[in-house]
Amino acid sequence: MPPQQSASGTATLESSHTEMSEILMPNDTNNLGRALGGSVLHWMDICGAIAARRFSNRQVVTAAMDHVDFIAPIELGDIVTITGYVFETGRTRMDVKVDVQAERPTAEETDDAATSFFSFVALDASETPTPVPALHCPTEAQRELRDIALEHRQKRRRNLA
């Protein structure tokens, strides 16, 4: 899905939206049969990078990751869904909210499992930081997602200070 960019150099939040799924297999579990934190972080980083790449239509690198909240365990066999979207931009930076859910279809349960904020920098062909499109949220749903992410990140930063 290519970014929806206008002539003025903007892209929509929706153009960055990324969702990917995994099944938690034994190689990604600890001795309790739950997800290794490193595996979850790996999936989150990939999802965030895809969202940033879709948004900027450029190669991207991870610049920062905020504190990660592991909310609930992910059990062996769970379907893990990772979602991400760009909610704020700078000159060469894109901030991406990434959320993880664990689904147990047999129990008809879905739990929020983890959440964090990542920053990615867009690179040009010579691997130098390059400008990214401005974020455009043309619908109420996109504005609401952006505002939720901004509020959540601001609240988290206040609590960590």
Describe the overall structure.
This protein is α+β, with helices and mostly antiparallel strands and 161 residues long. It has one domain (10-160): Roll (Thiol Ester Dehydrase, Chain A). The protein contains 3 helices and 8 strands; from the N terminus they run βαβαββββββα. The strands form 2 sheets. Strands 2, 3, 4, 5, 6 and 7 form a 6-stranded antiparallel β-sheet that branches. The longest helix has 21 residues, at 140-160. The protein is globular and about 45 Å long. It starts with 9 loop residues before the first strand and ends with a helix. It comes from Natrinema pallidum. This is Acyl-CoA thioesterase.
Outline of this structure?
Residues 14-126 form the HotDog ACOT-type domain. The protein contains 3 helices and 8 strands; from the N terminus they run E-H-E-H-E-E-E-E-E-E-H.
| The CATH C-level class name | Alpha Beta
**Beta strand count:** 8
Cα-to-Cα separation, first versus last residue: 38 Å
| Structural class assignment | alpha+beta
Write the CATH fold name.
Thiol Ester Dehydrase, Chain A
User: How would the global form be characterised?
Assistant: globular
**CATH-wise, what's the superfamily?**
Hotdog Thioesterase
Strand proportion, as a percent range, falls in 35-45%
Percent in helix: 25-40%
Instruction: Give the overall average pLDDT.
Output: 93
List SSEs in N-to-C order: EHEHEEEEEEH
Low-confidence stretches: 1-8
> Whole-number radius of gyration?
16 Å
Number of helices: 3
CATH architecture descriptor: Roll
Number of self-contained structural domains:
1
The major sheet is characterized as: 6 strands, antiparallel
